[in-house]
């Protein structure tokens, strides 16, 4: 059974785009929730920097264990 490579690549590309869109949307929803919980005096940049600090620690663990 022949495989249509171009069709497969297009299908995978579209699936990846959808996944990236969901991830981006989730990040901004998370950020909005964190800002609402933190209160009006919190700088949005500080919340985002803290997120990346925590994410970097998790990424470092994954990279070191592989």
How is this structure best summarized?
This protein is mainly alpha-helical and 66 residues long.
Report on the architecture of this protein:
By secondary structure, the protein is mainly alpha-helical. The longest helix has 34 residues. The termini are far apart. The model has no long low-confidence stretch (mean pLDDT 90).
Summarize the topology.
Layout (H helix, E strand, L loop, with lengths): L4 H34 L5 H22 L1
Key descriptive features of the protein:
2 helices; mainly alpha; elongated; 66 residues
Biggest pleated sheet: none
Q: Element order, helices and strands?
A: HH
Structural class: mainly alpha
How many helices? The count is: 2
Model regions low in confidence, pLDDT < 50 over at least 5 residues: none
- What is the general shape? elongated
Mean pLDDT: 90
Number of E-type strands: 0
Q: What percent of residues adopt helix (DSSP H or I)?
A: over 70%
> C-alpha Rg, in Å?
18 Å
Distance separating the two termini: 37 Å
> What fraction of residues sit in β-strands?
under 5%
What is the number of domains? 1
């Amino acid at each position: 059974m022949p495989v249509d490579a171009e069709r497969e690549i297009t299908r995978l590309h579209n699936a990846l785009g959808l996944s990236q869109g969901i991830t981006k949307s989730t990040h901004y929803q998370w950020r909005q929730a964190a800002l609402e919980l933190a209160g009006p005096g919190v700088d949005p940049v500080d919340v985002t920097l803290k997120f990346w600090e925590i994410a970097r620690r998790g990424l470092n663990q994954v990279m070191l264990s592989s």
